Amino acid sequence: MFIFPKDGVRLQRLALCGLPALLLSTVSGTALAQSSPEQATSADAEQGRITSLEEIVVTARRREESLQDAPIAVSSFSAAAIDRQFVTDIRGLAGQIPNVVITNVPGFNAAAIGIRGQSTADIILTFEPAVGVIVDDFVLANVQSQLFDLFDTQRIEVLRGPQGTLFGKNTVGGVVNIITKRPENELGGELRLGYSSFNTKDVKAAINIPLVDETLALRVAGAYHKSGGYYHDTSHGGGRIGGSDVFNARAKLRWTPDSTTDIMLTYEIMRDRSDSPPSVNETPASFLLAQVGYPGIQVTGKKPLNTSLTLCEGNATDPNCIGTLNGHQLDVDGVYLRAQKDLPDIGSFIVVGGYRRTKAILPSEYSGEDAKIFYSTRDDTRKQYSVEGRFTSDFSDRLKFTVGGMYWGQRLAANATSFLGFLRFLGDPTATTDPNQSDMYYTVNSYSVFGEGEFKVVDKLALILGGRYTKEDKSFRVRPQVRRSTIATGFWPEYASSASFSRPTFRAGYRWEINDNINNYFTYSQGYKSGGFNEQAMSATSALPFKEETADSFELGFKTETSDKRVRFNIAGFYVKYDNLQRDAVVPFTDPITGLPGQETRTTNAGAAEVWGIEAEASAVPVENLTVSLSAGWQDGKYNEFITDVNGDGVNDDASYLKLRNLPKWTLNATATYDVFVPIGKVSFTGTVNYQAEYEATTLNAEFTQGEARTLVGASINWTDESERYRVSLYGANLLNEIYRVNGNSVAGLFNFTNYAPPRSFGVELGVKF
Fold first, then answer.
1. What pTM does this model have?
2. Which CATH number is 6-769 given?
3. Burial 333-361 (b: 16+ CB within 10 A, else e)
4. Which region is the signal sequence (predicted)?
5. For the chain, which residues make up each domain, given as ranges?
């Protein structure tokens, strides 16, 4: 049963929003498509002329098709477009995608991605993300490893809106689909050397080696990134803190014994030895930390990038430190196998399987002060494995479909040690010598079957219908935070639970080819975020499972392109209704050990919300050799119901007046590249400006935690020789030197800790291909 907005008002608004664009495009002959600006790779470019946009192919529906034909809101970035950004990970693309926020989880080098009002901004291991991140068909299930390095990437697709049919659970907001480069039967390689502000050094290299003529090839790519950090330490000699030290590599072996068989084995490795991420103290005057002598920067006047943290040697078993001097350590090893068999005139069978092991040691200090306020470490090991098989067919001129099944599982073990140093201000002299400890074990087994097809009813009109059914079994065991001295006496409570979840999701709609240049589509899509357990449980009540969070989305879009491929333009309107929202609340409870009152974090399905908006993107070559890209996103939303304990007094309140987090009302971007062909090659000038409005970063909209509005300006100059073998690039980011908060967290009336984005920076990159 379709769930429409009240009185159909918002759906009518969406339709009306699309009509002006349709009329405009009909008159001008333009077409709608969501994409980054792509330059032509035709003979025109080889002759020193760029007069059109290249065709963009996406796999947003699990099969290759033109972006113009895909009935979905998707932004696509090619390898060339990614290279022009001069960014290390996916955060650098956020400003160019309508209604998308990509930053880090406060206090961690982990991804916080928001799309259309749905986001995950927690590091809790048992929480499922709201936006799926998929690399070469393998799901990166935890935010800690989702800040994916972009070197040697073939294409990135950002799918907006629920993707529950073909991509499955945990895609209520959308999907970031990353496709890396494959081995080819040609000897070649690439080397890049870069240096930029904050003593940042980058070394990137790739080599492609044909092993057996036309049948077996190897590609190895790696990147090393080291930075001094852009925060200044005010307590330990004034040096830089928050630096990064990351090595990534992939080795791919591809076997193509004939034109219908393609088998690829991939090994992935990552070693991250970055600093413990610093935080900024933005504690309000009424909070405990401010009252005991550590007010936030709004009182002290300290600049946000001048901060500090507790630095000490040690580990999880140390008597008074957890090793923040060691930094955050993350080791990833993965093995993946992809096999494709094409049956001429019938279809293609694809099987993808993989295993990924992630081990993390994450010592952090959260207060922004060198005062042993709250410092902790989490050591965890996650083993993730999956296998998916699907069959894709253009069965006839009238029917296209994909069907398949998937198994996905994980095993997770974690332990945490936390020093609650702030308790010494409340009369506990052991707060910095007797830490809390906890451990947890979590397993997931998930099974699903899915299918989606497009049937052409008449020559220009096709109907879309798809569905997926998922069943999950989860088990959870936790020994909650207890003082180390208490554990030594042999007393450590344990809570265990298990649950099964099952959920069907559907997708239906149409695709209408109005004429050769204009496509129109409408879809109703469902998605869900899996139910589960709260790693932070302190009692039997909070260890109980919470239910799935669901989404029902309506989307209306138009895609057009001029016949000469000089202009593309896309507009889409959407309305999404979210139910059973998973939300945390800090609530009072009675400590089962001491019998004294305390606090715990409890996760419940606390309410419902709705989000609506418009997204538009355009690319054009208005004059020879000039490529322009424009995008705009507007969105708004509200809680229809939200019941939670707002002030921690143990009484649930009506909190529906609060704003949804990671929901900036406006995102705007303009990018232009002008190419000048000279006797010694080509010089490209690129400029970009993007704006993002303020948004809430915490569920309870805590003061001094909002992501601040910002306007970012960047520019680059790039030279390549005639053979495109050598390249020299100069670039600058955040040229207006905006200092702005990107996220924050507020800890139960105790203190606020926040993170800021990098200030103005400049860099140079040298590249050679062989």
1. 0.90
2. 2.40.170.20
3. ebebebbbebeeeebbbbbbbbebebebb
4. 1-33
5. 6-769
